[in-house]
Inverse folding.
């Protein structure tokens, strides 16, 4: 990548960040100021109604409540203790570590807990990376098998290969969005009693591993069921695996298009070097004829059934089962036509320019 291209991209990202900062400042700052004014008014009203309470004691109470909230204690709870570090919650917390989501609703506060969290993170993230790759591999294979059936049906209808490619790509994306986005949105809306927007906000922020932590599944009454949070984590696992598969597929498509564009530019440059005349075109044609023959399978750019999603992963089964080659057939196709040879007993008669001259007719017998 050229330095000018890097600078152009950097400027674009900085402008995007500045645009986002202006929008969030305009939307969120007035809301924050409004809540601050409400807090001050409520505090003043409380001190006016209960004159026996000292303002300093009230400030100390507020500090204690804020600290309790920071360690995960619900200030609205009664005298009955309910820990935020039960087995299900701790499992979900470990899941947010290895997935790099990190909601932040609970976090270790003790010295030994923070030290263990450092070591746990350094080992857990690479381990989860292997799991994510394996899950994406098998998920991509399942998607390919499903899409291949649709492709076979479209091929029977004699649909254009380009249209088939576009249709199957759109279907694969829509299928994943339904399974991992739209259905979870409805489930969280029902179970967590969120609005549709809040549920969609949580799903997108989670699957993009942003994880603000303002909305976390299981923090309400639904979290009382010990199976709920582990089930949410498995949804996160397969949702991330799906998006990794899709991003990998898109990246490979871009790579294929980039290589094709570079090849076309190279041919154009060679034609221009020949002055755009027939000489330059003949040069390109000669290079094509003398080029090393490529593998007849790999030289076909996404033209067989199921290959639209064959690049979702780089696994060995991406191409297996899709093509069956006949070695004898390939040998017959790749055989060069034999040139006629003259008899070794008869000398070749060549013209001065190197062309073979026809033999002189035999002299008649007298």
């Amino acid at each position: 990548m050229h330095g000018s291209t890097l600078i152009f991209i950097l400027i674009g990202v900085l402008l995007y960040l500045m645009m986002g900062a202006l929008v969030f400042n305009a939307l969120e700052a007035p809301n924050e100021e409004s809540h601050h004014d409400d807090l001050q008014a409520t505090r003043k009203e409380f001190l006016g109604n209960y004159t026996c309470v000292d303002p300093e004691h009230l400030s100390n109470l507020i500090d204690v409540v804020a600290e309790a909230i920071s360690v995960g204690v619900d200030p609205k709870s009664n005298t009955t203790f309910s820990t935020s570090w039960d087995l299900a919650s701790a499992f979900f917390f470990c899941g947010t570590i290895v997935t790099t989501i990190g909601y932040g609703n609970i976090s270790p506060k003790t010295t030994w807990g923070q030290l263990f969290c450092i070591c746990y993170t350094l080992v857990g993230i690479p381990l989860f990376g292997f799991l994510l790759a394996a899950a994406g591999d098998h998920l991509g294979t399942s998607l390919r098998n499903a899409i291949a059936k649709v492709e076979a049906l479209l091929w029977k209808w004699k649909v254009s290969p380009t249209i088939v490619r576009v249709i199957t790509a759109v279907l694969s994306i829509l299928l994943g969005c339904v399974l991992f986005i739209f259905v979870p949105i409805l489930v969280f809306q029902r179970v967590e009693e969120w609005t549709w927007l809040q549920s969609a906000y949580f799903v997108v922020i989670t699957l993009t591993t942003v994880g603000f932590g303002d909305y976390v599944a299981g923090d309400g009454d639904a979290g009382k069921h010990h199976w709920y949070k582990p089930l949410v984590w498995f949804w996160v696992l397969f949702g991330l695996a799906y998006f990794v598969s899709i991003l990998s597929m898109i990246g490979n498509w871009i790579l294929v298009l980039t290589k094709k564009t570079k090849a076309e530019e190279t041919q154009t440059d060679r034609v221009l070097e020949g002055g755009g005349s027939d000489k330059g075109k003949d040069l390109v044609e000669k290079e094509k004829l003398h080029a090393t023959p490529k593998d007849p399978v790999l030289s076909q750019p996404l033209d067989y059934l199921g290959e639209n999603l064959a690049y979702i992963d780089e696994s060995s089964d991406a191409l297996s089962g899709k093509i069956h080659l006949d070695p004898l057939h390939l040998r017959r196709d790749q055989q060069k036509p034999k040139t006629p040879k003259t008899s070794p007993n008869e000398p070749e008669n060549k013209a001065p320019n190197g062309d073979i001259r026809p033999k002189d007719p035999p002299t008649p017998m007298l």
